[in-house]
Amino acid sequence: MISQGILVFENAAAMRDLMDLRFGGLSLVDRGIRTMVRSGIQRILVVVPAVAAPPSLSRITRKLNISLEVVPWGTAPEMHFPAGEDFLLLLGDYVHHHSSLSEAMADGLGTADFAALLSDSSQKGLPLLEAQVDGEAIRFREAAQDRDQVSSGAFLCAAALAPHELATAATDVWTFLSVRSAGGRAEARAGANHLWRRVVDRRTARDAKNMLFSQVTKKTSGFVSRHLNARFSVPTSKLLVETGISPHMVTVLFVLTTGLTSAYLFSMPDDYLYLAAAGILWQMAAVLDRCDGEVARVKLCESKFGAWFDTVTDNIAYLAMFAGLQAGMSRLHPGESLYTYMGGSALVALVFSLTLLYRYAIKTGSGSLQHYQVGLKRHVPASDKGAVYVFVERHAYVVKRDFFAFAQFLLMILNQFELLYWLSMLTFHGMAFGILLFWMHYPVKSAIRTS
Would you tell me how many other CB atoms lie within 10 Å of the CB of residue 396? Predict the structure, then answer.
């Protein structure tokens, strides 16, 4: 696995201003460094224009647990790349989604000494380069407007190319690469990954930002989250990410407060306006619950603490919602012990479910309780799943926040609080049964113990 790389900005005055161009909450140079780190690079040399002072890196970037050196063109770096270890070279004005780099680095160089990574580009009318292998040398030239496979600004190189000497080279990046790769085994490696954009101004920066936001939805997101909530959360996140607000503050200021306010209004179902407002706010909280993660992914500042913080605050809102439901039902039916017993039973089921979910998350090293559903499919072979097990697995989506929040929203708009109460009680007990069934299955317990 490649773990070292060079981030290069061409030695031009215009590039100095471009390095500090902010979009998606980060400057171009910050984004390049964090993208490389997110894709697995641990030693990074950054070469910047010599025409101005070094760039000002953000606090989070400076605190990254990596080896990092920034040098201007014409200055010999102290960092050297060990012989025998390949490296990634990334041009600073090309913005990649980290997954495109990770996939390329996983493939490695193979038998080649140099590989220019090519793919299709949607950026028409923008100067892009194509790479051609001529014998044992590689040449770069401006691509025709209708050219499909063009340079993505990313290259895999053997350490024998002495990449650290690029900073003191008297030529541009393209000439340096052509000369150093001559005589070796060079490849123009075509691919289908479009997750990169070249940034030359604010318009192309917006294009890169939109590309990054197109990848923020998690694979574990439910149907409602992907197809409805995302239509509102992504535009909101695009605004929030430019304010400098942290994902944690998004969670506290928008998600938690909205959820708690909604939970309070749950307790007054005898007033339709309060009930409708509770439904709207609860659905809004589900939409905003995407925003903290979207901001974190675009700013490349995801962390295990952030995942746990989001999970804990979500569960605080869930418990508050349960309390609001119970208080509301008691308000509608004062003195009826049935609802007291039902609420107590549901509370036990809810606490039981959360206890097992948290234990699973801790054992597997995940900060998200949604990974329990992933484990439901992954740990247990299909041949071991009975009819009840398959039913629970197929209907696990009903306990995902996106689905039940939208269902609650509809029921409250329709003034069906009592139906909502009974469906919620059924869901709490059903969730506990499903999780217990999952937990007790031997292959799952074995996987947890060995994780």
Answer: 21
Smallest CA-to-CA distance from 156 within 105, 218, 217 is with 105
Residue entry with tokens 């400098």: 244
Contact (Cβ atoms closer than 8 angstroms) between residue 53 and residue 34: no
43-48 and 4-8 strand pairing: parallel
Tens of pLDDT, residue by residue over 166-201, are 888 878 888 888 888 777 788 888 876 789 999 999
Strand partners, 353: none
Give all domains of the chain, ordered by start, each with its CATH number.
4-211 (3.90.550.10), 218-450 (1.20.120.1760)
d(CA 295, CA 315): 21
Query: Does residue 81 come out as left (phi exceeding 0), alpha (psi in the -120 to 50 range) or beta?
Result: beta
pTM of the entire structure? 0.87
Question: What are the phi and psi torsion angles at 343 (to 5°)?
Answer: -65, -40
In this structure, the number of other CB atoms found within 10 A of the CB of residue 209 comes to: 20
If you average pLDDT over every residue of the chain, what do you get? 86
Angle ∠(420,423,426) on CA atoms, nearest 5 = 150
| 144-172 confidence digits (pLDDT tens) | 666 678 888 899 988 877 777 888 887 88
CA 261 – CA 264 distance, rounded (Å):
5
C-alpha pair distances (Å), 417 with each of 250, 261, 279, 280, 425: 29, 17, 10, 14, 12
